Amino acid sequence: MRRDILHTARLLAGRTTLTCHDYRKVLENVTASDLVYMDPPYQGVSTRRDARYANQVQFEEFVAALENLVAREISFILSYDGRRGGKVYGNGMPKELGLRKIEIRVGRSAQSTLLGGKDVTFESLYVSRGVIARIED
After folding, report:
1. Which long-range contacts (CB under 8 A, 24 or more apart) does 79-82 make?
2. Would you list the DSSP string of 17-52?
3. Which of 17, 49, 62, 135 is the most buried (most CB within 10 A)?
4. Phi, psi (5° rounding) for residue 36?
5. Distance of CA 62 to the CA centre of its chain
6. pLDDT tens-digit readout, 17-41
7. CATH of 14-136 given 3.30.160, 3.40.50, 2.60.120, 1.10.287
8. What Å distances lie between residue 88 and 44, 66, 115, CA to CA?
9. Do 40 and 52 meet the contact criterion of CB atoms below 8 Å apart?
10. Confidence tier at 49 by pLDDT (50, 70, 90)
């Protein structure tokens, strides 16, 4: 693991900026040459009673911020919702954003296993048109 972390650090050195601000402030400063990866608390699993997260990101405000990124042609990747077994967590992103949704099988759910189940978890990754265009180039 140490080798992987050091290798990743070398690859990202001088190319990456890490910040700790409200997401809206960060998104104001990105440019079309940037690639933004967002992994906010998933809708449906992060509530005020869940001590692992700060307050849940408000869906309508977040969608408005994404609309702004799309209008500015900012490339971004968003990990946001998912499902486990037959249970879906959160609303999908609005189709009007033009994002490509990719479901990633992440394996057996730890929570389900603790409860004696065998459910598999899938996380949703949303990819903007800008990222798709970069890949196709």
Report:
1. 79/37, 79/38, 79/39, 79/123, 79/124, 79/125, 79/126, 80/38, 80/40, 80/42, 80/43, 80/124, 80/126, 81/42, 81/43, 81/44, 81/123, 81/124, 82/42, 82/121, 82/122, 82/123, 82/124
2. ----S-HHHHHHT--TT-EEEE-PPPTTT--TT-TT
3. 62
4. -105, 125
5. 12
6. 777 888 899 999 999 999 999 988 7
7. 3.40.50
8. 9, 22, 18
9. no
10. low
| Tokens representing residue 1 in the block | 């693991």
And the tokens for 20?
A: 């700790």
| Residue 87: C-alpha distances to residues 29, 69, 126 (Å) | 36, 30, 19
Amino acid at 134: R
Token pair 């140490």 in the structure block, residue: 2
